[in-house]
Amino acid sequence: MLLQQFNDSDTAQLHAALRPCIDIQRWIDEITAARPYNTLSQLFSCAWAAATPFTTTEIAAAMAHHPRIGERAEGNSAEAALSRKEQSGVDQGNTALTKALADANRAYEEKFGQVFLIRAAGRTPEDILAALERRLANTSEQEAPIVAQQLREIAVLRLKGVMSE
Question: Which residue ranges does the record assign to the Oxo-4-hydroxy-4-carboxy-5-ureidoimidazoline decarboxylase domain (predicted)?
Fold first, then answer.
C-alpha cells in the first residue's frame, strides 16, 4: 500500500490492513487517528510509539494469534500468511532441529503458560533455538518485557511489509 493510499483509506479499510500486523485495537486506532503521515518513517515511528507499551491484557490477546515457532500457521488469513513467511527459514525436514524446537517450546509453555514468541524474520533456526533455550532461564518478570519487545518488532516489521514507497 502506498502512503497516500494509507492516508486516504477509510477507517474500516485501514483497520483491515493493520489488524494482521497485530490484533490490538488500541494500536490500530492510534495509528489510524494520527493520519495523515508525511513519510513512511513518520508512520513507523508512530506505530512503534503506539506499541510502547503494550498492556498485559493486549499482549495476552495478541499472543493467542501466534503459532509455536517451528509450526506452520494454518488458514488463509493475512496473519497466517505473514507468520508462515516469517518462519519460512525453519526447515521442517530437519528432524533434529524440529524436535529440539518442539521440546523447548513445550518447556517454555509449561514454565510461562504461553507460546514462545520471537521475531523470526532475519533469524536462523539455530538462532531461534538458542534464544529459546536462553530465555527458559528467565523468570516471568524478566520474560514479560522481552515478549512485549518481540511483539513490537513483529508489528512494525509487518507494517513495513504492508507499505511501499
Answer: 7-160
